[in-house]
Amino acid sequence: xxxxxxxxxxxxxxxLRELLHRRCxxxxxxxxxxxxxxxxxxxxxxxxxQLGLPGLALPEAYGGVGCSVTELALAGEELGxxxxxxxxxxxxxxxxxxxxxxxxxxxxxxxxxxxxSGALTAALAVPGTALATALALTGGNGGEWAGGGRAGxxxxxxxxxxxxxxxxxxxxxxxxxxxxxxxxxxxGGFARSRTLFFLVPGDAAxxxxxxxxxxxxxxxxxxxxxxxxxxxxxxxxxxxGVLGALRAVGDSAAAxxxxxxxxxxxxxxxxxxxxxxxxxxxxxxxxxxxxxKHRLADVYVQLQAARSAAYYAAWAAGxxxxxxxxxxxxxxxxxxxAAAEGIQLxxxxxxxxxxxxxxxxKRAAGDELLFGPVHRLRAHAADAARLFEGREVSV
Length: 395
Fold this sequence. Notes:
The chain is an alpha+beta fold. Helices cover 49% and strands 15% of the residues. It folds into 3 domains: 7-120, Orthogonal Bundle (Butyryl-Coa Dehydrogenase, subunit A, domain 1), CATH 1.10.540.10; 124-239, Beta Barrel (Butyryl-CoA Dehydrogenase, subunit A, domain 2), CATH 2.40.110; 243-384, Butyryl-CoA Dehydrogenase, subunit A, domain 3 (Up-down Bundle), CATH 1.20.140. It contains 12 helices and 9 strands. The chain is globular and about 80 Å long. 51% of the residues are buried. This is Acyl-CoA/acyl-ACP dehydrogenase.
C-alpha cells in the first residue's frame, strides 16, 4: 500500500473543501435541516455539476468519473467536516452500488447515468435497525433482517408478469425524499423465503412516506408504507447474489463512513482548540492549562489512529480486501471522544442549540445507532479474522 495521495486525490479534497467552505456554513446547514427534505438542493446540484461527486466511484461507461472507493472516501471526509446536508450517502454509497451489483444491464444503463449526474437520488430501504446487519458489519447477514418471510418488513408477491410489495420500513436514510427506492423484501412465502431487491419510484401509487424525527438531523430518515405497490425486480429472481453484494457494499460503505467520521472529528477538534485559545479563566486562556492540553492531545492521538485505519480501509476496499468494519469502529469512537470533549471544553454554550458542537456529538451517536455499536463492529471483525478461534476467553 502506498500511503501517499496522488495529485488528483489531493485536488479532489482541496476543491471540495473550498466549495463547502463557500456554500455550507453554519447558517446554510441549519437552514437545510429545517426544510422538509433536510437537504440543500442547490449544494447537491453544485457538487454534481462542478465535481461529479455522485458518480465519483461509478464507471465511465455509466457516466461516472471512474475513480475508486478511495476517492469517494476522501470526499466523504470533507463532507463529514462540514456535516454537509446532501444525499450522497444514501444515493452514491448505499443504493447506487446495490443497483450496480444486482441490476441487469438494462437497469444499470437506465439508472446509473442518472444517479451519476445527480439528477436522480436514491435510498436503500432496509429497516434502519437492521441496516448494519444487512450490510454484514456487525454479524452475518444471512438471518431474518428483512422480515424472514413472516409478519414484519416488506413482503413481495407475484402479480402477473410483475411484483407487488406490501409492508412497512422505518429509519430509511433519505427514504422520505429519494426519487428512487431500492427496497429489500421477502418473496416466496415462509417455506421458500428469500430476500430480493425491488425498484420503486418515489411517486408510486400506494406508497406513503414521511420524514421521521431522528437523533441526528444531519442524517434525515423516513418511514415507508407500501400498500400493494407495483415494483420492478432488481436483477434475477433466484436471489443468490444478494447477500454477497450487500457484504461488498457494506465494506466499501464502512470505509466511506469511517473517513466521514474522521473528517467530523477533525473539525470538532479544530473548533475546540480554537475556542480554548480564546476562553479565559483566572486571567489566562484555558488552553494553557496542562490538564486541557493533555485531554486534547489524547483526542488528537486517537484521531490520527482512526485516520490511518480509515485510509487503509478505503484502499483495501478497492483491492478486494476487508477492513471497513474495524476502521469504522475506530473512527466512530474517535468522533464520539472529540465531540464529547468539545462540548465539555466549550462549557455551558456547548450544550445549547445555538452552538454547533452538539451536532457533531449527535452525528457520532446517530451513526453508532445506525451502523454499530462499536463493540459489535469490533467483535464481528475479530470473528471474521478468527482472532479468538481455539482460545478460551474469559469475560
